[in-house]
Automatic annotation (TrEMBL):
<dbReference type="Pfam" id="PF12696">
    <property type="entry name" value="TraG-D_C"/>
</dbReference>
<dbReference type="InterPro" id="IPR003593">
    <property type="entry name" value="AAA+_ATPase"/>
</dbReference>
<dbReference type="InterPro" id="IPR032689">
    <property type="entry name" value="TraG-D_C"/>
</dbReference>
<keyword id="KW-0067">ATP-binding</keyword>
<dbReference type="GO" id="GO:0005524">
    <property type="term" value="F:ATP binding"/>
</dbReference>
<dbReference type="InterPro" id="IPR027417">
    <property type="entry name" value="P-loop_NTPase"/>
</dbReference>
<feature type="domain" description="AAA+ ATPase">
    <location>
        <begin position="249"/>
        <end position="489"/>
    </location>
</feature>
<dbReference type="InterPro" id="IPR002543">
    <property type="entry name" value="FtsK_dom"/>
</dbReference>
<dbReference type="GO" id="GO:0003677">
    <property type="term" value="F:DNA binding"/>
</dbReference>
<dbReference type="Pfam" id="PF01580">
    <property type="entry name" value="FtsK_SpoIIIE"/>
</dbReference>
<dbReference type="InterPro" id="IPR051162">
    <property type="entry name" value="T4SS_component"/>
</dbReference>
<keyword id="KW-0547">Nucleotide-binding</keyword>
<protein>
    <submittedName>
        <fullName>ATP-binding protein</fullName>
    </submittedName>
</protein>
């Protein structure tokens, strides 16, 4: 009996039989065989230089599946050992020179190709070292355990599991592994009982970032899923989901980016999640009809013609001065009219408890309103409009003139603010208003007031626009989250730094973001997240 075998017997103080039957360590005690099958890594595949979101998900799923298939008490052992970088580089360069020489003289095409691939792998390692990336040398060992009275049956079961482990390591992790020989087993056991300071055997060298996948221990902490949140997409740098806690929704969100980068898709996905995964009421304003095309069937779609507004007829929830002020704010924002001038017209035409249209005055002064006549001559339906704000809806403004769109939307925001904010309390469902192409109404005083009041009344505001400069500073300062899509435009990136306070090194990332990718900036979290937007179901089904 060898020394290490005697030590094991003495430690256990039992009459046992220990024998190496490669690739197994077989322990016989009281007529039962306990067998450990050893698998060791021999080489790492460097043909995959980066792990994208899909690859990371595959690694996690594969590892979970692998653990499920292992018998109880099986182990995965990762042992870090010292790496002499100078010696490693010299050995690497010699091997590369030998491979080049072999490729030049060998005649068989398959041998030449095999050596060419190996040379490319070594070049990748060499480039990694030159770039200053950290390397880790380690020994990776799988110990698969099984037991039973029939040794041959135990070995058969271990062989099946061993084959699965080796295939998964090769295909999913890029690690070439093999079943251990007698020397491997002897060295591992000596290390484990303290006879050797390190495991003597074949080691692998890999960049430290990939060590987490072999362990596999992610470099980033996996967030816990919060039931009181909705999913925005996934983090491109870690692969984990990015969530929006509903409790910060009333702290408002800005969605910024050039046309075609994914703003509307993000809004549709967010609205879809809010409606299906929470009791938050959503009121949307869609100027171009793009949002409607992704949400039809999820919520009610309505048009301004079904819910007319008249600038000279106040809703019951307003008093006269409140309505006049709101109309003046809207007209000055849309048509550039002086607020005092608008107030003069409205006050002169006031009659009794309401407002009466004076035809003589209109002939002279309301010619300025010719392009928005639909909002002057119609009979309003305010009671229906107020009831509408208790539902999940999107107002589709597509097909109307721009002046009408802007004025109707401006008045709609004032009515929403007066109706929803005034009745919102801790006992009523929270609400959110979503405005695509918000630059059309962003200078509206009523919108600024809605943003300020909404923070304390449980009403969230989500604005989407093309540039940071479209949004007034008062709104930016009262907004906690910005979702900023990519652009190579330098002015866009400078605005991100100047207006939003994004560091220059982070703003540069905007140049490299693809369609559907955005930088998430959260005032409550110093970590900037690179988001891959989750498409809405309607888009996925196309």
């Amino acid at each position: 009996m060898k020394l290490w075998e005697k030590m094991v017997s003495r430690i256990l103080d039992e009459d046992i039989s220990i024998e190496i039957q490669e690739p197994d360590l077989v322990i016989r005690r009281n007529g039962t065989y306990s067998v450990i099958r050893y698998i060791v890594a021999s080489e790492v595949d460097y043909s995959v230089l980066e792990i994208d979101e899909a690859k990371l998900r595959s690694i996690i799923e594969s590892y979970s599946s692998l653990l499920d298939k292992l018998p109880e008490a099986s182990e995965v052992k990762v042992v870090k050992i010292g790496l002499d970088l100078d010696k490693f580089l010299k050995r690497l360069m010699n091997e590369m020179l030998n491979l080049k020489a072999t490729i030049d003289v060998v005649e068989e095409p398959h041998v030449r190709e095999k050596n060419r691939v190996k040379l490319e792998i070594l070049r990748n390692i060499y480039d990694t070292i030159l770039k200053g990336k950290k390397l880790t040398q380690l020994i990776l060992v799988f110990k698969i355990r099984d037991s039973g009275r029939d040794l041959s049956e135990v070995k058969k079961r271990l062989s099946v599991t061993s084959s699965i482990v080796i295939n998964v390591l090769r295909n999913e992790f890029g690690v070439v592994a093999r079943e251990a020989d007698a020397d491997d087993i002897r060295n591992i056991v000596k290390y484990e009982i303290g006879l050797e300071p390190v495991i003597r055997g074949k080691s692998i060298v890999l960049d430290s970032d990939r060590l987490g996948c072999l362990a596999p221990i992610p470099r980033f902490k996996k967030p816990r899923y919060n039931e009181d949140s909705v999913i925005l997409g996934s983090d491109l740098e870690t692969g984990w989901v990015v969530e929006l806690p509903l409790k910060i929704l009333d702290k408002h969100i800005l969605v910024l980016g050039p046309t075609g980068r994914g703003k509307t898709t993000f809004l549709a996905s967010l609205i879809e999640s809010l409606i299906t995964m929470s009791n938050i009421r959503v009121f949307g304003i869609d100027f171009k009809g793009d949002l409607v095309s992704l949400l039809n069937g999820i919520l009610d779609i309505v048009k301004p013609c079904d819910y007319p507004i008249n600038v000279f007829v106040k809703p019951d929830v307003f008093d006269n001065i409140e309505w006049f002020t709101s109309v003046a704010d809207a007209l000055s924002n849309v048509l550039g009219l002086d607020k005092d001038f608008v107030m003069e017209i409205l006050v002169k035409n006031r009659s009794g408890g309401g407002v009466k249209v004076d035809e003589d005055v209109l002939k002279k002064k309301l010619l300025l309103f010719s392009n928005i006549s639909e909002l002057v001559m119609v009979e309003p339906k305010y009671s229906d409009l107020v009831k509408l704000m208790e539902k999940n809806i999107v107002m589709n403004m597509d097909g109307y003139g721009s002046s009408f769109q802007n004025l109707y939307a401006s008045l709609l925001i004032h009515i929403y603010r007066k109706t929803v904010v005034s009745r919102t309390s801790s006992n009523t469902p929270r609400s959110v208003i979503v405005i695509d192409e918000a630059w059309r109404v962003s200078k509206l005083k009523g919108l600024v007031e809605l943003v300020k009041e909404g923070r304390s009344r449980g009403v969230g505001v989500i604005l989407a626009s093309q540039n940071p400069s479209d949004i007034p500073r008062e709104i930016v300062e009262n907004t906690n989250m910005v979702v900023m899509f990519g652009s190579i435009n330098e002015d866009y990136q400078k605005d991100a730094q100047k207006i939003l306070g994004v560091p220059a090194v982070i703003a540069k990332k905007l140049s490299y973001l693809g369609v559907g990718e955005a930088l998430v900036i959260n005032a409550l979290n110093p970590h900037y997240v690179v988001l891959k937007v989750r498409p809405p179901v309607k888009l996925l089904s196309r």
